[in-house]
Specification:
- The chain has ten helices and eight strands.
- It has 256 residues and is of the alpha/beta class.
- The chain has an eight-stranded mixed sheet, with helices on both faces.
- Helix 3 crosses helix 4 and helix 7 packs parallel to helix 9.
- The longest helix is centred in the first third of the chain and has 24 residues.
- The protein is globular and about 40 Å long.
Length: 256
């Protein structure tokens, strides 16, 4: 399978913004093993700004754009250093791909992105995609990495997008507030009732939430790509997903 794995900020870091070393090491190990088994993997990684917050020993993510862009520049270096180091231990090469909304909205630039992506996969390289937060503004930003994950999956003609976040999947209500909330194991159509279940943004260091995840699901399903929302605290669940087991919430794209 060709699988796009999107890692949220809450999966990669502690609440302090510092790297969750144990989890990231395990994620890279599992993804390397899946690659060894013959799967093609693309990683969409959040965390640049949060890593910059931790690197510069700030207490919280700033609100002004110039500081966010500066932190992204610092944090992106740290992220790629970590991925290069960890994947190299299992003899896999990574490549950095940074995008803005303008890159995917322009037909010519989007085709260049696709061509690069396909060639990297042919060469056995594991692409690591993130939004180019250093130059992205509200006008040209993709906005969140759930959407970026869907963009990557659609352009890569992936079989599956896995969103690894701080929640098990889509619930009938907000599980953080309603103890009676039940996990919805599969979705075959995004009905108005399902869309109404989406809440607000998630963690303080991240930018996503269920709204962006359902938007990503819609993009994938329309393109015939399946999508799974699952808890990123268990990287080993990627094995179960690759083997077709039921994990989290699966949105079916209907590709034959």
């Amino acid at each position: 399978m060709r699988i796009v794995v999107k890692l949220g900020t809450s999966t990669l870091t502690h609440a302090t913004g510092k790297l969750n070393i144990r989890r990231v090491e395990l994620l890279c190990k599992v993804m390397s093993d899946l690659k060894n088994a013959g799967h093609e993997l693309i990683l969409v990684s959040s965390g640049a700004i949060a890593m910059g917050v931790g690197k510069l020993n700030m207490t919280r993510k700033p609100s002004d754009i110039p500081t966010k862009q500066a932190l992204a520049a610092v944090g992106q270096c740290e992220l790629m250093y970590i991925y290069d180091k960890l994947f190299s231990e299992y003899h896999h090469t990574v490549a950095q791909v940074l995008l803005t909304g303008a890159d995917v909205e322009d037909q010519h630039r989007c085709m260049n992105f696709q061509n690069t992506l396909f060639r990297l996969l042919e060469l056995g390289v594991l692409p690591v995609i993130n939004e180019n937060d250093t130059v992205a503004t509200a006008e040209i930003a993709v906005g969140d990495n759930d959407t970026l994950g869907a963009i990557a999956a659609v352009n890569a003609r992936a079989d599956l997008l896995v969103l690894m976040s701080d929640i098990e999947g889509l619930y009938t209500a907000d599980p953080r507030r309603d103890p009676q909330a039940a996990l919805i194991p599969e979705v075959r159509a995004l009905t108005p009732e399902l869309l109404a279940l989406a809440g607000d943004a998630g963690s303080d260091l991240g930018t996503g939430g269920m709204v962006t995840k359902l938007r990503a699901a819609g993009m994938c399903m329309e393109a015939g790509c399946d999508m799974i929302i699952t808890n990123g605290t268990r990287p080993e669940d990627l094995y179960r997903i690759a083997e077709g087991e039921r994990v989290g919430t699966r949105f079916y794209g209907g590709r034959q």
